Structures are given as structure tokens and as C-alpha cells.
Amino acid sequence: MSSSPIVFFDLGSKDNVPFSWRTWSIRLLLNYKRVRYHTTFAGFSALQQVLPAAGIPPTGTSDTGAPMYTVPALIDPSTGTKIAETREVAAYLEKTYPTPAIALPAADEQPVHDALTPFRKLVVPGIVNLLEGEDERFYIDSRRKLLGKELSEICPPGAARDDAIAGLRAALEQLASTFPGSPWFFGGSKPVFLDFQLIGWLLWLKLGALPGVWDALRMEELAGGEIHGAL
After folding, report:
1. Between 1.20.1050.10, 3.20.20.70, 1.10.287.70, 3.40.190.10, what CATH number should domain 111-229 receive?
2. Helix axes of 86-96 and 21-33: crossing angle, nearest 10 degrees
């Protein structure tokens, strides 16, 4: 068995500060299990070259039928495993590094995704502020093609943005009302993977949201400050 650390692939940014909620959920899982790893950052513009060159399998196909590569992804030298996609990576880590154990959600158990995905529009146009150079250009062009509009046209300042912020705050309050206890949101006395998914989503929001959104949410007031205190 190799003693080399896991190679963990993450999206690059200006300062290589992790911001993707999906990769944060796996990063938190690795940290919780105290699995040794080091991070290889790949920007938006290089991801489709870096991952296949490392032998990472595709997780889907593009509109043209070409294979698509996404993060989180990792290489585990101890087993020779090369794997991608959040659920697959989490299941692999739980099987290969079972201590401490953590409960993984069922395929149809997606409370974080279901509650918060409608408010991605508060973050998607702000992510560009974390990027520079070719990654910035790639992000602007790819989102224009994907969404059919400029980033500045997504949730511009005004009533629509104010309504989205209010809606996100209400969704977070509703989600918080389902928390069974503390210190962990969903797990209570010990974490479950849903906790890492929620923390990852909130870090994505905090780091990438449009200017003023995070402060407007008044996170310190939600759930008795529990959510804010976890970040």
C-alpha cells in the first residue's frame, strides 16, 4: 500500500481559495476522516484538459457528445483509484476510510439542494470576481452560452435581487427548523454528509455571492447564530 497522500482536484481561483460547494463537501469529509491529501487546483479553462490527462473518468457528456470532466475528483495512490462526482467520491471515501464513519444521504435525500438551488442566481454572476485571465474569460463565455444572457443580466440590483435575498433567507430559516440538534445541523451529536454539503454551499455563497448579498442575509441571526458560527 502506498503511503502517498490522495491527490484532490479542485477549482482554481485568483488566490487558489477553494470556493466550489461540491468540492468543499469532499474537502470537509477528508478533513473529518483525517485522510492525508494535497490539492491540485485547475481553473475553469484548464479543467477539461487536466482531469483526463490525470486519468480521471468523465462524469457526463457535453452538448456535442464530448466527455465532460468535473470536480470533485481524486486519485488515491494507496488503491490506484481515480474517481469523480460528489456522491461517488463520498461513497468511496466512506468505504475505504471507514473510521470515523459518516452517514451518506440516500439518492433521493437532497434537502440542501432542493432548498437552496433556486437561489444560485445570487452566486453564479459573482463567481467571476474570484477569477482572472483565461479562467475569467472562459467563465463569462461559457455562462453566456449556457444561460443565454450576460452575467450582469442575472439578478441585477433592484426588486428582483431583493426578493431573491428574502427568499433565500426564508429557505435557510425553513431548513434550520428541521435541524434535530447541535452541534451538527443534520447529524446532531456527530456529522452526517448533509452537514458538509450545507457548510460547503454556505461557503460558496459567502465567497462567491454578488456584492452585498452575504451581509444582507444577516446570517448571524439565523438559527440562533448556529449557521453563521459554523463557517
Report:
1. 1.20.1050.10
2. 0
Domain 6-96 grouped into CATH 3.40.50.300:
no
Q: What totals of helices (H) and strands (E) does the chain contain, helices first?
A: 9, 6
The domain ranges of the chain are: 6-96, 111-229
From CA 142, how far away is CA 146, in angstroms rounded?
A: 6
Written as one letter, the residue type at 223 is A
What is the C-alpha to C-alpha distance for residues 139 and 40, in angstroms, rounded to an integer?
Answer: 19
Neighbouring CB atoms inside 10 A of 188's CB total 14
Contact (CB, 8 A) for 116 and 171: yes
Coil, strand or helix: which one is 24? helix
| pLDDT tens sequence across 180-192 | 877 888 998 899 9
Look up the pTM and report it.
0.93
CA distance 226 to 220: 8
